[in-house]
Automatic annotation (TrEMBL):
Taxon lineage: Bacteria, Bacillati, Bacillota, Clostridia, Eubacteriales
Segments traversing the membrane: none
Signal sequence coordinates: none
UniProt GO MF annotations: DNA binding
Family matches, as InterPro entries: DNA-bd_dom_put_sf (IPR009061), HTH_17 (IPR041657), PBP_domain (IPR024370), SinI_DNA-bd (IPR010093)
Residue intervals of the Helix-turn-helix domain: 7-55
Entry superkingdom: Bacteria
Cross-referenced SUPFAM superfamilies: Periplasmic binding protein-like II, Putative DNA-binding domain
UniProt organism field: Syntrophomonas wolfei subsp. wolfei (strain DSM 2245B / Goettingen)
Name of protein: Molybdate-binding protein
Amino acid sequence: MKEDSSLTPQEVADLLKITKYTVYEMVKRGELPAYRIGRKIRIEQRDVDAYIKQGKKLKYKDIDTLEASPRTQAARQDYLSTSPGLVICGQDLLLDILGRHLENHSQGCRAFRHNIGSFAGLLQLYQGESDMAGVHLWDSDSESYNIPYVRRMVPGIPTLIIHLAMRQQGFYVARSNPLGIKGWADLTIPGLRFINREPGCGTRVLLDEHLYQMKLDRRKINGYEREETSHLAVASAVARGTADLALGNEKAALQVRGIEFIPLQKERYELVIRKEDLDKAEIRAVLDILNSAAFKSELEGLGDYCLEETGRIVAEI
């Protein structure tokens, strides 16, 4: 390949042994020059070579601890700015906190957050596009979380499921609950305006599994096809009066004025990683963070998290 030839993001990812998504993040932050041909992104080989050369200036063993000297801290920042990092899929705030702790850990790295739902996160993990995925997928047949889905959606790849937290899922309704909403069966109240989450996210799966279990026809739910992509978005719709009912976690209800929360089900929010990645220093750093007092203390201050099992490997698949 000629020195001045252009590469696709996937070709760059293959050269650097990182994911394509990480390449896009590097381009977005200006760490790797790129240009467009129509709707396609291209990167010059010489720019990739320059990036690799710059990265060779630092060795990970030179990055010691958070209490290191200013010189070492500066070296660590250089290392973080050029390290490939980990791609963390999921939509919960605790993953953002995990990413920040990871960047400050003595054996940490850059954390690239991809805010997508549980199905999409598992698919990216299976395709090698991410390093870990936060999931909360309820299976009505076994009345269990996550394990049945990981078995089917990440076939042939040994994985570990690490518990993050227990959360409460429930309905968002207007203050004083004017329609008297109590449970799942109330979704079909005549005239009720529902607002849904996008297909593939854990909240949508929870709804659809309960509809299946109760043999409720989703076509009878006014607003089933109306979708938003976050807990805050659907909670806001209820607060503004453009919807009467939505499903989401308790934390969003604490952040949006003018609504009440009706608890329905405790759910397990968990992290899925490839077992083969356990020998990576940055993955070991993640496990260390999840079991640390500092991480758990920060989550306790946010509410709506039960942390009794946080950091425990609950399944090996």
